[in-house]
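On clarity, I found the account of how folds are encoded harder to follow than it need be. For illustration, here is how one protein appears when written out as sequence plus structure tokens:

:::
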Amino acid sequence: MATRDIYATGFDEDVQTESGANQCPECHGHVTTNIKETVCEDCGLVIEEQRIDHGPEWRAYDADERERTGAPLTATRHDRGLSTEIGHRTDAHGNELSGQKRRRLARMRREQTRGRWRSKAERNLAHGLGEVRRLASTLELSESVRDQACQFFRSAQSEDLLRGRSIEAIAAASVYGTCRCNQRPLLLEDIVDAARVESSRVTNAYRTLNRELKLPTPPMRPTSFIPRLISELELDHDIQRRANELAACAEETALTNGCQPTGVAAACVYLAAQEQGALITQSTVASAAEVSVVTLRSRRDELQAI
């Protein structure tokens, strides 16, 4: 059994005594610091107050579990991800809910859905951002591209570009514009195939976004489409290396000026395949690049004339 008093050397978590070097600047008295302020015990001078806690913001219930105070803000939701989502059949611990609680949650979910949007603009924003997320998931785009496309859609709505245009068309144009800004080798036909709108509407919406928002879209290079064509046509690495050399030569001689980059890339792949002795037809390469055979032949003749 311990003979000493366990509270003799105890520590008060609320009040801490500073060392002798820290004295009151007025009377050189004794200074104490608690969780809120630093005070002189002799003259009562408040030396420091409203101390900032620079520690982590998560909360720990045990040694293995740490939970943050909330989800981070995201541009993919109309409310930045701050709204509450009500579950369906289980509680927070995974336990099955009773029928009475499920009916109560259904009523709460219905009322929460009705009050989720404060205006028609927020409802349109939620629908458009959902379409952007669907397209990004279908096309297997990265999260950074998805977030940037959602931001483009927000900018389009704030500039009143949705009036008279389809929400799906603006969403598809936002995804395509983001891919263009990030030099992603994605064709407009790929966006149209995944979108729920016609090609002409997506084209007009992209032109509007590019003109009104002044998107920083650099010109697409033929070399960015060559890996995609090589993968679709199942050609070897030597053909890809030679096609890149032909594309670089075409860019140096300004052959790509005014030409469709996919057509130049298709011609480079076809010429490289012919030099390596690969058995591939012009129609197969043109179909993979989504250009006409006439375009492929014209770019091939121009490359051969260099």
